[in-house]
Amino acid sequence: MARALARLPVLAVALWALAACEVGPDYRKPDAPAPAAYKESQGWKPAEPGEAASGTAWWSVYGDPVLDQLESQVQVSNQTLKADEAAVRVARALVVEARAGLFPTIDLGASAQRSRQSSGNRSTTANQFSVSATASWDLDVWGRIRRSVEASAATAQASAADLAAAQLSIQGELAADYFALRVQDETERLLQATVALFQHSLEIANNKYEAGTAAMTDVASAEAQLESTEAQAINVGVQRQQLEHAIAVLIGKAPGEFAVAPLPLALKAPAIPAGLPSALLERRPDIAAAERRMAAANAEIGVAVAAFYPDISLSATASLAATVLSSLFNASNLVWAVGPALSETLFEGGLRSAELEAAHGTYDQEVALYRQTVLTAFQQVEDQLAALRILEQEAGVQAAAVRASEEAARLTLNQYEAGTVDYTAVITAQANSLSSEETGLGILNQRAAASVGLIQALGGGWDVSQLPAEQTGVMEPILP
């Protein structure tokens, strides 16, 4: 027994040397289409400093303490993120599970029995004590287990990137909803101010009617205009409440327990550094997730190839048995066996070939999805850059239109009061002024949404270096 045990390390080293190879293709990251520069970045003003791409809290570029406070609750309370975080923990456990196959499995057993046998008029009672140990070790000569570990680790990294992408998406949705809510506050303020203006117009119409210089239709028209605007102001509350409820759910609170106090909106969409397109491949968690799924699919090809080769394992058993407990561990009671084992499937009806073909197909599918994800990412950046550029120009023109329409409404009301125009002209000018200001607020809302969208499209400061280490399976840090 001693000599056999002495040979075990030599045998193990020899068989382990065979296990140095790994069948199947080694992973190489496929090329993805990446332009040299963004088409819409010409003339783009880079921000200094670029907090939105620095790995810090990207929403801090807006300088809104209420938004900062809301965003800080997303990671802690959002139920969707909690579900995604649980999925990451599942993927992490699967890495450990796959890696366990690289180590020997050792089992220990013990039993004690007392039995009675009868033969004719004689009966005997005997005790039986035994202790046994078994060990088995899949030597992974062809790298099947190591490829499985590689696939599980890449899948865990993809899950971590999915979690980061989900968090970025929810943070962006929250920011967009928050700015839309603030625009609703501004819309209500505008309508309330307009109501006061229309009340003044009604008083002028009433005075002229009582003086006999205006018809009753002027008073009726002024009342209709006033009441219609009051109804608009009330209706703003519907969308505002819906946005408030949406924000509550995003931060994991019941809508009935949450409220955002109305505040003036002083948004100035910050300039955001777009950087080089090639950097996008490292800064988008969804791209990182797609790339890691490619790596996992590539490793699964190795697992499928290894199935064509015989499985080689090393096993050992040792047991002690005795009828008297005190003599159980005597050397004469020892029975042992040790040696390698080989198993190979000779016929399986094409199963392994089909599995290998499926693994190749899955890899090709993941490559196509990765490249499509990259193309979509570039499209999203270009879309938001274009939106911000065009909306900035539109906002300038619209601001001039607002000033002109306000002046036209003021002059027309003065002319009506002087009796040089009828009230129809007043209504038209005031309606144009209100519509122009509402359009300006709509453009502001679009600029805020495009600004948030651009930060999301650029990855929100996330970086591929934040993925868990592949070698260790350590899952921190998961999120920025």
Task: Please give a handful of descriptors for the protein shown.
480 residues, alpha+beta, elongated, four-stranded antiparallel beta sheet, 10 helices, Outer membrane efflux proteins (OEP)
Write a structural description.
- It is a single chain.
- It contains ten helices and four strands.
- The protein has 480 residues and is an alpha+beta fold.
- The chain has a single domain, classed as Outer membrane efflux proteins (OEP) (Up-down Bundle), CATH 1.20.1600.10.
- Strands 1-2-3-4 form a four-stranded antiparallel sheet, covered by helices on one side.
- Strand 1 and strand 2 form a beta hairpin.
- The model is unreliable at 43-54 and 472-480 (pLDDT under 50).
How does the helix and strand content classify structurally?
A: alpha+beta
CATH top level assignment: Mainly Alpha
Distance between the termini: 57 Å
CATH topology title? Outer membrane efflux proteins (OEP)
For CATH, the homologous superfamily is named as Outer membrane efflux proteins (OEP)
Provide the gyration radius in Å.
Answer: 37 Å
Sheet with the most strands: spatial strand order: 1-2-3-4
**Poorly predicted sequence stretches spanning 5 or more consecutive residues:** 43-54, 472-480
Give helix % range. 55-70%
Give the strand tally. Answer: 4
Q: How many H/I helices? A: 10
Query: What is the mean predicted local confidence, pLDDT?
Result: 87
* CATH architectural name: Up-down Bundle
Tell me, briefly, the overall form: elongated
Characterize the largest beta sheet: strand count, sense, and whether it forms a barrel.
Answer: 4 strands, antiparallel
List the helices and strands in order.
HHHHEEHHHHEEHH
Beta-strand content: 5-15%
The total domain count is: 1
